[in-house]
Amino acid sequence: MKKGQMMSQPIMYIFYALVAALILFFGVRVIFDTKDSAEKVEFEVFVNDLKQKINTVYQDSYGSTISLESLTVPKTVKEVCFVGSLELENIYEDDLKDIIPLDDENNMFFSGIDLKDNPRRFSELLVIDGTICDRTIDRKINLILENVGERVEVMSLNID
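The chain above was modelled as a monomer; its predicted structure follows.
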């Protein structure tokens, strides 16, 4: 080997290490971005399924009921609240206690979701007596929807 070749080898190893580090950095970044996107999609699918259940019971006959237990709640959602008139004592999560009093346009709220992801929705078909919340520790909503004629009412599922 010549003297010039000996000096180029460490530079090549540094270049390889730099390229490998960049590949790892951007690969990890893509993986985390994909995970965030998957959580957003999972939440939107959950909200659409919930709205579909509301529409289904609305289109059924008077007195029809449907349970929300079959919905799969995303693991990021800690509590679901339906609000007609505000009753803070029925809300478990502190972030919802901060959000709900400031919002008079929406009637469905979800705790555990970032504010930028819009953790609230509105359904014109829902009628709620007070504030009905359910902790989703078991990843299920233990509530019932009932057709009351012109609207759909949210009720607690009585578990004895």
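Residues 3-156 form one domain.
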